Each structure stands twice: as C-alpha cells, then as structure tokens.
C-alpha cells in the first residue's frame, strides 16, 4: 500500500545530489537499448512530433532525432539541470510537470515515458492525460519497473534490502512497483488504446554491470531509511552495498515492463 510525504526529486533522487547523474546514466545504459528498440518499431504513419516525458539526462530524446529524422522532439523535465547543456536542432527542452502542465489534445505522434508514472499517486489520471496528447494513429511507449524479480532473488539479504528500498519509496513518494507496471495492458485497454504489446526485461546485477551500479547508488542513497524498517537487520544494508562493490554477487535486478500501444486513427 502506498502513501506519500514528498515528491520525487524534492529530497529523494534530487538532481542536486553529486551522484544522481551517475545513477541515471547507469539506468540509461540498462534501458536505452530496450526503449530505442520499442521506439524503432514501424509507425503506422508519418512521425512529425515526438514527446519524451521525464527525459532525465536526455539520452533517449537525442536518439529520437536519429530515429525520426524529420520530427521535432520535445523533452520535458521538472528539473532541467541535466539537460541544460544539450543543444540540438529539432530538439526543444521544456520545463514541464506532467501532473500539472498540459499539451493540446493530439499534439504528438510518438510519446515515450520511462520510470515516471509509478512514482505519481495520480498515475492513472496522468496516464489518461498522456493518451489525450497522443494524435490519432500515434504510438505510446511506457516503461515501468516491477518488483517480482526482486521477490524471487535467491540471496535473502539482497532480497530483504532491495524490497526495503521499494518500501521506502512507497512510503515517501507513493511509488507503486507492485501492481502498476504489470497492470499497464489493462490500463491501456481501458483508455481505448489498441495494438498493445508487452515486453519484460530482467537485467543482471553484478558489481560491474550497469544495473549493479544503478542499484548500488540507489541503495546507498536510501540506506538510512532502509535500515530503520522492521525486519531489516542492522548489518543488512552495509553487507549488500559491500557485495555490490566487488565481484561475487550475481542476482536479478529490477524488472522493467515495456508497453507499446496505439491510439486508433479517426474513421475516414
């Protein structure tokens, strides 16, 4: 069950943290190939306008320029400090809060959002607003985490600390890694989307894998909160952080669910 005491980026995962760019860059190394593969699927019509929500370091937005060489790409964030140095033709960087700021209906032929909605208590309402921004015949790619792979981890201490991190996010941000990602096909169908496909990716966590680096930085950031949780032993978090920093640990990382769906074209 999720609650909320703050917004993503207020304190947890703030872009002011010295290691936050490195954390997001490691996640991009894991997920960019999956995102780009989904974006590269043949479109049903011309792609002239693309939207990248919660663009982070801008890695996917920049690649959209290559995938769609005649399209204008809009990349949005609530904190632009990792995007300020990017200057590309056909790329607009926009300060935008997806929960409060809008776009006209039918504005974009392709919309992509990764690891965004699960942090929002208004996730289903926001999903509906995003669908409205999609043009008839357009494609929506939504990527969200799911915790089932962490629940299945064989290392008990790693499992306990990893699930503890997600519990902290649920209590502090209202994050849902339990149901939201797995319910995406049902949510998309309820919003009138069609041609729905689903891909699930489970990366490997080792000391030198991108997911290992991302997870070590995530756990280190949340460690003080994890250590206060009932059922987490005093040495659990330091033990896992140490094991993530050297060879030996091989485990499953956070799963990612990639949904691709289309908005029906208007009848002629």
Detailed description of the structure:
With 268 residues, this protein is an alpha/beta fold. The chain is built from 8 helices and 9 strands. It has a single domain, classed as 3-Layer(aba) Sandwich (Rossmann fold), CATH 3.40.50.150. The strands form 2 sheets. Strands 3-2-1-4-5-9-6 form a 7-stranded mixed β-sheet, sandwiched between helices. Strand 1, helix 2 and strand 2 form a beta-alpha-beta unit.
Going across the biggest sheet, name each strand in turn.
3-2-1-4-5-9-6
CATH class: Alpha Beta
Mean pLDDT, to the nearest integer, reads 95
Order of helices and strands: HEHEEEHEHHHEEHHEE
Radius of gyration: 19 Å
Please tell me the CATH architecture by its name: 3-Layer(aba) Sandwich
Number of domains: 1
The name of the CATH superfamily reads: Vaccinia Virus protein VP39
Content-based structural category: alpha/beta
**In whole angstroms, how far apart are the ends?**
45 Å
Shape verdict: globular
The biggest sheet amounts to: 7 strands, mixed
CATH topology: Rossmann fold
Which regions contain 5 or more consecutive residues with pLDDT less than 50? none
**Number of alpha- plus pi-helical segments:** 8
Tally of DSSP β-strands: 9
Roughly what fraction of the amino acids lie in strands?
Answer: 15-25%
Helix coverage percent: 25-40%
């Amino acid at each position: 069950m999720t609650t909320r005491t703050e917004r993503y980026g207020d304190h947890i995962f703030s872009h002011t943290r010295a290691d936050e760019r490195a954390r997001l860059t490691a996640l991009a190394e894991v997920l960019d190939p999956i995102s780009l593969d989904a974006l590269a699927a043949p479109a049903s019509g011309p792609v002239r306008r693309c939207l990248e929500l919660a663009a982070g370091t801008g890695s996917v937005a920049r690649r959209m320029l290559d995938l769609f060489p005649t399209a204008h790409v809009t990349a949005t964030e609530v904190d632009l400090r990792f995007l300020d140095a990017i200057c590309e033709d056909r790329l607009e960087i926009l300060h935008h809060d997806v929960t409060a700021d809008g776009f006209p209906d039918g504005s974009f032929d392709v919309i992509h959002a990764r690891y965004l909605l699960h942090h929002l208590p208004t996730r289903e309402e926001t999903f509906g607003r995003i669908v409205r921004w999609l043009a008839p015949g357009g494609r929506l790619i939504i990527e969200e985490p799911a915790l089932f792979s962490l629940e299945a981890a064989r290392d008990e201490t790693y499992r306990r600390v990893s699930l503890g991190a997600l519990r902290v996010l649920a209590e502090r941000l209202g994050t849902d890694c339990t149901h939201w990602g797995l319910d995406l096909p049902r949510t998309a169908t309820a919003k009138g989307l069609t041609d729905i496909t689903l891909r699930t990716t489970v990366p490997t966590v080792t000391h030198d894998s991108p997911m290992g680096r991302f997870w070590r930085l995530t756990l280190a950031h949340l460690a003080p909160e994890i250590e206060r949780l009932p059922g987490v032993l005093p040495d659990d978090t330091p033990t896992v952080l140490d094991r993530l920093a050297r060879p030996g640990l091989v485990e499953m990382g956070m799963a990612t669910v990639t949904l691709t769906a289309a908005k029906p074209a208007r009848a002629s």
